[in-house]
Amino acid sequence: MLYQSTRGKSPQVSFQQILLGGLAPDGGLYLPVRYPTVSPAQLDDWRKLSYADLAYEILRLYSDDIPAGDLRALTHKTYTAAVYCNGRQTDLASDITPLHFLGEEQGTSLSLLSLSNGPTLAFKDMAMQLLGNLFEYALKKSGQELNILGATSGDTGSAAEYAMRGKAGIQVFMLSPQGKMSAFQAAQMYSLPDANIYNLAVTGVFDDCQDIVKAVSNDLEFKARYHIGTVNSINWGRVVAQIVYYFQAYLLATKASSERVSFAVPSGNFGNICAGHIARMMGLPIERLVLATNENNVLDEFFRTGIYRARKAAQTLHTSSPSMDISKASNFERFIFDLLGQDGQRTAALFKQVDETGSFDLSADPAFQTLQQFGFYSGSSSHQNRLDTIRQIDTKYGVMIDPHTADGVQVARHYLQPGIAMIVLETALPIKFAETIEAALGRPAECPPAFQSIKTLPQRVQTMRPDVNQVKAFITSHLQ
């Protein structure tokens, strides 16, 4: 399996060649030259597999340059009940991602896919734990070292740091927007004592952090000299690992491959729902992919109008679902590449236009008229919607959900179809957003024992301006 850049000007390369990097040399994102397809018979054969074995079956379609025995060992090392439990649903921990049926609404079943059983209580663990093991494997084989530069709006940072802490040959430099994460999210990251972890709080918003990561990735000389890699979802390894749980959810929700399901996905950077798009392109019987945003509704605006209008930092709102406070969705380029028939030249021109003017308009383009064949629907929600939805789900089903998952449920309810199961992808445990849960329910969220004292631990964090040169200087002065 070879990989191409969404901008069409970089050589095609193998999975291991792109694993440790981020952007392609031409500034694009990597995608496979073709999507492997899965037949209905294969789907039915996979129903008896464990999550680790299902991950192996899907990942081997994309990483044929990793020996089969090594890949199987990596998925079995990653997806274990011991890693994905956190004291929650321990009787279901062997499922890794249990499907939690809520009830019947509008003639169909509404369920949550539990993705927050990992070490940092968020869905990002599903891919990041695998990425940590893949990185360690690749570095050991090559004898190299890796300096990871990442950006986080909340959950990516802690998931990456917990996956990479103590890993041989790896250092992590994680950028986060100062004061824009929940207290729990910040404490998870900043309290890690590991010598290979560095936290940098940027006086701006997430998009400022993401812009710095992209700028460093585009400085090819600096990137090569200092062995810079990324764990943001621009890294293909993150996206391909997330494809697995769409297949798992489908297999848990259906009895035969003739059935179809829909997914609702809280979306900020487009990586999570991009994995669903790819699963659908592979042949997974997905009826609708429902994209849910908060008040930062750049993606919803595009799917409704064909206009992509990235917002500036000053226009990005700080909301009660902060992990989605993103106004430039870096993974969106992967979908536009597919929407344009994998035309790298046109994709490059559009995103160059975004860099120059902040937007592009495909509303009158023939490609936009084909949008529904990809199954996308979208919507956005407000702070009040989140509070109301958290209360409703708690009252009606006795289930506490976090504000991002509430965004997903709120929007999903607009797109329910009789007889087509709707699965909402859970984002995180409610404790990560304790203030919003208290406001909605008047009582605290349950906290797993391992995190009871997280906010009282000493924190290690360096504050700096959103300046790429300052970040580069910090990296070079802290190389071990």
Secondary-structure class: alpha/beta
Shape category: globular
Q: Mind telling me which CATH architecture of the domain at 90-121 and 237-441 this is?
A: 3-Layer(aba) Sandwich
Number of strands: 16
Order of strands, main sheet, comes to 4-5-15-10-11-14
CATH topology of the domain at 90-121 and 237-441: Rossmann fold
Output the radius of gyration: 21 Å
Estimated helix fraction: 25-40%
What would you note in describing this structure?
- There is one protein chain.
- α5 (125-142) runs parallel beside α6 and α10 (236-253) crosses α11 (271-281).
- This protein has 18 helices and 16 strands.
- The chain has helices spanning 15-19, 40-45, 51-59, 68-78, 125-142, 155-164, 183-190, 206-218, 220-225, 236-253, 271-281, 298-305, 332-339, 344-357, 383-397, 403-412, 434-441, 468-477; strands at residues 2-5, 13-14, 30-32, 99-105, 108-113, 146-151, 170-177, 197-202, 228-229, 261-266, 286-293, 307-309, 359-361, 376-380, 421-425, 462-464.
- It is globular.
- The strands form 4 sheets. Strands 4-5-15-10-11-14 form a 6-stranded mixed beta sheet.
- β7 (170-177), α7 (183-190) and β8 form a beta-alpha-beta unit.
- The protein is an alpha/beta fold and 480 residues long.
- It has a domain at 90-121 and 237-441: Rossmann fold (3-Layer(aba) Sandwich).
